[in-house]
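Our consortium's second objective concerns turning raw sequence data into structural hypotheses that experimental partners can test. To show how far this objective has progressed, the report includes one record in full. It was chosen at random from the queue rather than selected for favorable results. The single chain below, 332 residues long, was entered without modification.
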Amino acid sequence: MTDKQLSDFIKRGKEVLQIEENGLASIRESLDLNFAKAVEMLAGCKGRVIITGLGKSGLVGRKIAATMSSTGTPSFFLHPVEGAHGDLGMVRTEDVVISISNSGETDELNALLPAIRSFGTQIISITSEIESTMGRLSDIVIKTKVPCEACSHGLAPTSSTTAALAIGDALAVCLMDHKAFDSQDFKKFHPGGSLGRRLTLCISELMHTDNIPAAAQDGTLAEALTVLDKGGLGLVALTDGEKLSGVITDGDVRRLVCSGNFNTQISAREVMIENPLRITPDMSAAQALDIMESKEITVLPVVNEEGMLTGMIHLHDLLGKGRLKFAENTRS
């Protein structure tokens, strides 16, 4: 590129930022009592705050929901299409819904709002058009009309989505102030800061004990793979009676397929890894993490003193991130 082209990009970038800045200044000046009433409604919410929107507005909604959840206001995002196909069952009378649409005429969203209203659930809309269909279906409307989009053709959501996002931040911060949400509260909602304390826990406090993915070593490979698939941990434990005798991982299956020797009717015992790494319930999470890091694995079977399988522990259980739904290509 020429120096002129590079200079033009910088100039255009500044223009876009100025347009978006002007948009924020515009909604700042137009902010009225409806915003304060929205904060009041959200502060009095006895349920959850549910954010909904489609397309770019949906992406903005996801961010607002995440911000509120991490700052003391239980919140989640509801996709309007999924809502129309069953997820509306998550909405309760005591919840408050925040609906986002710049035009206020998003068909999928407006088809959902009457059903939400029928539950007695209150609705706050963030839109540029107060008299839109969405606006009329709402209890409170926060107007976010910007002078123009930053897009050259005035089509791509740019300034309008920035405005909606900023309003979401303003609502979240006002709720934080109302609840006197401080730095100590913030830490509670960010478990990464409490990882050190989590790693002092015993494996028995963190391990999976229900529906452990385990199969008999003398059963077929097909039977073991069915358990592996349903288990969701990337590993199936093979047992001799109740004692752990081996494991098969997702990675083992992949290597078996690539070798050309994949036969689901053979005994699981023929392909299992014998005498796999295992830990005991009284070990600490930190010890388990050390083993996982050194051996580059993500899941370990847990056995008692007699070698009986009693549970499973995944790396994400140790880190406080919940159960993983897919597995790494590792061997135990």
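The partners drew two points from this record. Residues 23 and 146 are 5 Å apart (CA to CA). The chain has two domains: 3-189, 198-319. Both points have been shared with the crystallography group to help prioritize constructs.
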